[in-house]
Design a protein that fits this description.
This protein folds into five domains: 134 residues, Rossmann fold; 122 residues, 3-Layer(aba) Sandwich (Rossmann fold), CATH 3.40.50; 31 residues; 64 residues; 161 residues, Histidine kinase-like ATPase, C-terminal domain (Heat Shock Protein 90), CATH 3.30.565.10. It is built from 19 helices and 19 strands. It has a five-stranded parallel β-sheet.
């Protein structure tokens, strides 16, 4: 029950920052430790709902005598955290395991404990209520790499310091060598030698007969202390044989290669498990992750220095730190240039074919777009058919009446010539009126190529109004036009721009279907802009919900019960073809406004023919 309450208490209180103590056994500036802490902190901070307060404390027992310093270190931590509630303690390596096992209840009584970076052989020592992540020092596969690189070697020298941890890593390598079935090794362990002694011995080795594994060296027998990676460069320079190991921080220092573990991956995994514990996703007790696999890595610089053929390096080994030769540095460039030279003719042919294919596709797309636009114009004319028929029928009816009147006059013996002349003038006027309506409708419907010419947008609007006025009258809608005489000319296709205005105006009329008759007003206005002309179509209809405004100009999106969703899409296509923009906004007092901006003729990307 106590475990459950503790588990729940960790998962709650998400508003408070997580307080995490990181307890490395080694100096936190040591690269192996620093890489893990950086990755751990990054993963934990990314998962935290708020923020994380990190605290780091280290005794560095690998280079100091922990038995002398532990009491003072313990007293310091008790004082430091007596009033600081800690949620989680993350211990790194063996010292942290031993220290937290003994003292965590005295220093952090309510904190969960996560131990990471310990060899799998130490798992049995972990208390059952701890979480942990073990790893595997892959001495076996490191020795397997040595067997592949040095097929004649039978002696294996293991170099290590004389601290407790140095002894532990040396024993791991020795046990792995003695258990190998593929080759019987003559194992020699060099523990605690000074750096000068090591360099002297290594320089005398027979490179063909001896393989060297370097584990760790925190202290030598004279009490000198080291970071283990610092030892790699001087012994590698002195050795005639490759130096193998399983620590990635040795790469680039002189290590030839080995089956290495990843400090960054281990730190990231530890941070992820810590976050799962603090979020309450897993209980602390016994929480763990599978042991991650090592990977074979070879330093190409060292291979070249020792004249080791590439054919000896196993295929599954990653090669890093290639020397700055032309091939290694610019391999991709060399291959690319060779490929370009070899395939130049084919590339040019392919480009020409692609260009032709694209041109044909663009022409087909233009034809389809024009056909679609024409179909939309025909659809618009269909919507206006009733009012257009009425507009044509009125002058035709007047012509018929005038013809009847002229016939009656001619039946008299002495017809009145002035009256006949007036009748003929009326017939001519009404015929012209009907002809103009039909001509404008034919212009709208006929199939013709797009033609960009310099034109007055106001004149185009006025021509379109002659088609709109009858429909507006039929729907009992008033049209108000405010056309600024200061508008500059534009370059465009007159019919396509008429179609834009028709689409916007018919949509505006549809939007006012439920509006009171007295309030139905369609406003069309133009005004000059410093870079072009603005055309605005405003209605007093039901308005457009903000939720759908971003989709208005998408193809096949419509808010009408029987709409196809192409009118506004085509309008946008036409406007953008003219180098302009179209947008929608709400009108003050209700309704909507559609604003079309077109560049002036001076700024248009098209040039009108002279």
């Amino acid at each position: 029950m106590g475990l459950i309450l503790c588990f729940v208490s960790i998962a709650v209180d998400a508003g408070e920052p997580w307080r995490v103590v990181i307890l490395p056994g080694a100096d936190p500036t040591q690269p192996a430790v620093a890489i893990q802490i950086r990755a751990l902190r990054s993963a934990l901070s990314a998962a935290a709902p708020d923020r994380v307060e990190f605290y780091t404390d280290s005794l560095d027992e690998l280079r100091f005598d922990s038995s002398d310093l532990t009491p003072q270190f313990l007293a310091l931590l008790k004082k430091k955290y007596e009033n600081k509630p800690i949620d989680l303690v993350i211990g790194i390596a063996d010292f942290a395991l031993d220290f937290t096992t003994r003292y965590h209840k005295d220093i952090w009584p309510n904190a969960s404990i996560l131990i990471t970076s310990i060899d799998e052989s130490r798992v049995a020592r972990i208390p059952p209520d701890f979480a942990y992540i073990a790893w595997h020092f892959d001495a076996d596969n490191t020795i397997a790499l040595a067997e592949a690189i040095q097929p004649q070697a039978r002696q294996l020298v293991i170099v290590a310091g004389n601290s407790n941890f140095d002894d532990f890593t040396a024993r791991l390598a020795e046990q792995a060598a003695r258990s190998r079935r593929s080759r019987k090794w003559d194992v020699d362990v060099w523990s605690g030698l000074t750096l000068n002694e090591l360099q002297g011995r290594l320089n005398k080795l027979d490179a063909s007969a001896v393989a060297v594994i370097y584990t760790t060296m925190y202290r030598d027998r004279e009490g000198r202390t080291f970071f283990p990676f610092e030892v790699v460069a001087p012994i590698a320079q002195a050795s005639r044989a490759p130096i193998y190991g399983w620590y990635p921080t040795y790469l680039g220092q002189g290590l030839f290669g080995g089956a290495v573990i990843s400090y960054e991956d281990n730190g990231r995994r530890a941070g992820g498990l810590a976050a799962s514990i603090l979020l309450g996703k897993v209980p602390t007790r016994g929480a763990t992750l599978p042991i991650m696999r090592s990977r074979c890595i070879v330093d190409r610089t060292q291979a070249d220095r020792l004249a080791i053929p590439s054919s000896l390096i196993p295929d599954d080994c990653e090669q890093v730190n290639a020397p700055p030769s032309l091939w290694n540095q610019y391999r991709g460039t060399v291959l690319s240039v060779a490929a370009v030279v070899a395939l130049q003719a084919l590339t040019i042919a392919a480009l020409l074919w692609q260009h032709r294919k694209r041109r044909v596709a663009e022409e087909a797309a233009t034809v389809r777009a024009n056909e679609l636009a024409r179909a939309a114009r025909i659809s618009s004319a269909g919507e206006l058919s009733a009012s257009i028929a009425h507009e044509v029928g009125q002058p035709l009816g007047a012509i018929l009446s005038n013809a009847d009147a002229a016939g009656l006059i001619l039946e008299h013996r002495e017809p009145e010539v002035p009256e006949l002349q007036q009748i003929l003038a009326d017939v001519r006027r009404d015929a012209t009126r009907a002809s103009q309506v039909v001509q404008r409708l034919r212009d709208l419907l006929r199939k013709q190529p797009v033609e960009f010419v310099e034109l007055d947008l106001n004149a185009t609007v006025e021509e379109t109004l002659t088609l709109l006025v009858p429909e507006a009258r039929r729907r009992r809608i008033s049209i108000e036009s405010q056309l600024s005489a200061a508008c500059p000319h534009i370059v465009g296709d007159r019919i396509q721009l008429q179609q834009v205005l028709l689409n916007l105006s018919v949509n505006a009329m549809d939007a006012m279907q439920e509006t009171e008759h007295a309030e139905r007003l369609l406003t069309i206005l133009t005004r000059p802009d410093k870079l072009g002309v603005e055309l605005t179509v405003t209605d007093r209809g039901h308005g457009i919900p903000e939720a759908v405004r971003s989709k208005l100009f998408d193809s096949f999106f419509t808010t009408k019960a029987h709409g196809m969703g192409l009118g506004l899409s085509i309008a946008r296509t036409i406007v953008e073809l003219h180098g302009g923009t179209i947008a929608s906004r709400s009108r003050d007092g209700g309704g909507s406004a559609f604003v079309v901006w077109l560049p002036s003729a001076a700024r248009s990307r098209f040039r009108a023919p002279h």
